Amino acid sequence: MSHANFSSPREAARAFTPKLAAFVDDTLYPQIWNDPALALRDRSLITVAALIAGGHLDELPAHLRRARENGVSAEELSAAITHLAFYAGFPAAISASAVAQATFNESQDN
To answer: Is 56 in a helix, a strand, or coil?
Structure first.
């Protein structure tokens, strides 16, 4: 999916649905992501898995990068994607693998 002149799906959503963006900015990240009941690393793995299982690949690059920042290794992400093939389907895992490869190649180029 193209986001035209926006650098991310979140930026495009912010332009079209500012109230939705406010929920993300004011509730999701400061309250949900920072709830000490789950470590950021665990939240990242859960989020990546949910995005892959739901076929929400537009959001996946940002959350793959966030997972790496939160201590999830590339090897662990690869293993998670492989594991998800059996629960979310092989097409979802293969598509996620392509997104992960492109995302991590992009970050190595910068």
So the answer is: coil
